[in-house]
């Protein structure tokens, strides 16, 4: 069965698709997608091609019968390409630091008592902003990558 081909399949190719030009096509004899020479064009589409390998002439087929339209398959898990994933600052961080001066953070220590809005620097998590107070001597601190609960005011 001949798959109906649309002009869109060839239109972008422009002048490259013409009688005598080479085109990749499925050879019904070789049963492979091989280089073919276009023999007949109809309405801007190659309809008859000659296989450059076995020199048989046949109807132009872009892909083997039953094959999916040739689109570059998205390779998954190949490890050859991965989107760069820099840790984007969380929105909470942007909100918490808006208008804050981060240049003079208070060194975090469990014994220090903090207040909402203060900027602190934690030995492991870095700079954070106190965004909440919790019962039991705990503060809610928004760091660049996450919001964490820390203890404070421990005598
Ligand atoms: Zn062939």
Task: Produce a short descriptive summary.
The protein is mainly β and 155 residues long.
Can you characterise this structure?
The protein is mainly beta. It folds into two domains: 7-59; 91-151, SH3 type barrels (Roll), CATH 2.30.30. It is 5% helix and 34% strand. It has one helix and nine strands, in the order ββββαβββββ. The protein has one helix spanning 91-97; strands at residues 22-27, 32-42, 45-51, 57-59, 106-107, 119-122, 126-134, 138-143, 147-151. The strands form two sheets. A five-stranded mixed beta sheet has the order 5-6-7-8-9. Strand 7 and strand 8 (138-143) form a beta hairpin. It is rod-shaped, with a radius of gyration of 33 Å. The model has no long low-confidence stretch (mean pLDDT 84). Zinc ion binds at residues 27, 29-30, 34, 51, 53-54, 56.
Question: What does the secondary structure layout of this molecule look like, with pairings?
Answer:
Layout: E1 22-27, E2 32-42, E3 45-51, E4 57-59, H1 91-97, E5 106-107, E6 119-122, E7 126-134, E8 138-143, E9 147-151
Parallel strand pairs: 5-6
Antiparallel strand pairs: 1-2, 2-3, 3-4, 6-7, 7-8, 8-9
Zinc ion binds near residues 53 and 54.
């Amino acid at each position: 069965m001949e798959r109906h081909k649309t002009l869109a399949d060839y239109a972008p190719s422009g002048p490259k698709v013409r009688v005598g030009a080479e085109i990749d096509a499925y050879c019904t004899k070789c049963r492979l997608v091989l280089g073919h020479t276009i023999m007949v064009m109809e309405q801007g589409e190659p309809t008859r091609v000659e296989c450059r390998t076995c020199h048989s002439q046949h109807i132009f087929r872009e892909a083997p019968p039953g094959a999916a339209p040739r689109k570059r398959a998205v390779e998954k898990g190949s490890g050859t390409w991965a989107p760069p994933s820099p840790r984007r600052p969380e929105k909470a961080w942007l909100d918490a630091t808006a208008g804050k001066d981060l240049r003079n953070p208070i060194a975090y220590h469990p014994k220090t008592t903090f207040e909402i809005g203060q900027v602190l620097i934690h030995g492991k998590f870095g700079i954070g902003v106190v965004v909440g107070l919790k019962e039991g001597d705990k503060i809610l601190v928004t760091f660049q990558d996450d919001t964490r609960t820390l203890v404070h005011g421990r005598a």
